[in-house]
Amino acid sequence: MELGELQRQLAPTGKLRAGINLANFLLVTGRDPEPAGVSPDVAAEIAKRLGVEVQYVAFNHPKELADAVDAGSWDIGLVGAEPQREAKIAFSAPYADIPAMYLVPGESNLTRKAEVDSPGVRIASVGGSAFGLWLEKNIQNATLLQVPTMDEALELLVQGKVDVLASLKERLLSDVQRVPKARTRQFCHARPGME
């Protein structure tokens, strides 16, 4: 495909409007004055190769970014690829592979990943996140409680209102210090793609 055609398809306004998920602290590491990190850098490089200016369109939550596809507010969206989103968004190959994990308190009887999806087990996660969507699709027997933020999900675990916390590995490795004798197990990889 010729560069002019790519520009017309990916940057129809003359700028590449890049939807950025600010909630992913691994891919967006700064916000002043504009988003900084891996996702903004990827968008800037695409714009550079297209020969157009990049315009960041920031979203506080991945669900907001994915839902905004209908509004036409972005040309490419840097958000985790999940089958639920593929109905409206065409994803590229992943530009990052981010492991997601379970965290359980030290006194938990759950010792293997396979035991988590059992009747009576309560899992807290962030709704609309790539790992939250993976859980929605794959958890068959446990109860999934999805909340707006990871801090809220962690608080559910600390208060004993859930048995398992599910999140990105790097976040759980910091949260493990707040849960006595906590243990972790990997369950999936979030693979951000782009429309």
**Largest beta-sheet characterization:** 5 strands, mixed
Q: So how many helices?
A: 6
Question: Unreliable stretches, pLDDT < 50, 5 or more residues?
Answer: none
Query: Rg from C-alpha positions?
Result: 18 Å
Helix content: 25-40%
What name is given to the CATH topology of the largest domain?
D-Maltodextrin-Binding Protein, domain 2
User: Main sheet: which strands, in order across?
Assistant: 6-5-7-4-8
CATH architecture of the largest domain: 3-Layer(aba) Sandwich
Element pattern in H and E: HEHEHEEEHEHEHEE
Strand segment tally: 9
- Kindly name the structural category: alpha/beta
Observed structural traits:
single chain, 195 residues, alpha/beta, D-Maltodextrin-Binding Protein, domain 2, 2 domains, 4-stranded mixed β-sheet, 27% helix, elongated
Compact description:
InterPro entries: Solute-binding_3/MltF_N. It comes from Effrenium voratum. The protein has 195 residues and is of the alpha/beta class.
